[in-house]
Design a protein that fits this description.
The protein is mostly helical and 220 residues long. It has eleven helices and no strands.
């Protein structure tokens, strides 16, 4: 019974994850975002190809389903000694997997960053500010969304240890590593393009980077 109950929660979380924001909104507009831009069903490609409003809708849906999946585990009773927090984190992972490999959309989805944000917002809200800070600083400094996301994902690991309560730190640390590895795997193409020098850069948002470049030229 324990395995069945936990499996049902994880299956529900996976199915929630499979409800991809960009693909659902795209169907309403008669567009498959996977045929546009980078081909990724995520907020960044949505912004580049279909505009701000579409991208915001995508992100809201994806963050929301991550939060809802975690809430399924957190708000329901413990199962066989498995704490609600552990269930919430596991459901967050299942939801992210569903987002990346959605059963409703041919197992071709996004990269999972928004789902991770939603899940961690429920499980450890205090982590959002430092992780978002890493993402924003990296984006403003380099203009690379993929790099900013990977570094923000990796920052989950130390942040979960520092900000989590002592009694649940090992649990948070373990799942943060899982989330970070998932984001690294789904952004592996971005990493390869960065190394090759072919990664797309949002030059308009590279505010800090441009300021640094100007300061360097003046000091030269």
């Amino acid at each position: 019974m324990i395995a069945i109950a936990l499996g049902a929660k994880l299956l529900l979380a996976y199915l929630l994850g499979s409800l991809s924001g960009s693909l659902i909104l795209g169907r309403l507009r008669g567009v498959d975002i996977r045929t546009r831009g980078s081909g990724n069903a995520g907020g960044t490609n949505a912004l580049r190809t279909l505009g701000l409003a579409f991208a915001l809708g995508t992100v809201l849906i994806d963050v929301g389903k991550g939060a809802l999946a975690a809430a399924v585990g957190l708000w329901l009773p413990a199962i066989g000694g498995i704490s609600p927090l552990a269930q919430a984190l596991a459901c967050g992972v299942a939801c992210a997997i569903g987002h990346v490999w959605p059963v409703f959309f041919g197992f071709r989805g996004g990269k999972g960053a928004a789902v991770v944000v939603g899940s961690m917002a429920v499980c450890l809200p205090a982590i959002l500010l430092p992780v978002l800070g890493v993402w924003v600083l990296c984006l403003l400094g380099t203009g690379y969304v993929g790099l900013a996301t990977v570094l923000a994902g990796l920052s989950l690991v130390p942040a979960s240890w520092w900000l989590g309560e002592a009694s649940v730190r090992p649990l948070l640390l373990g799942f943060s590593i899982v989330f970070a590895l998932l984001l690294l795997i789904t952004h592996r193409g971005n990493v390869v393009r960065l190394l090759d020098g072919t990664e797309h850069r949002f030059e308009r948002v590279r505010v800090l980077g441009r300021l640094f470049d100007r300061a360097s030229r003046r000091g030269a």
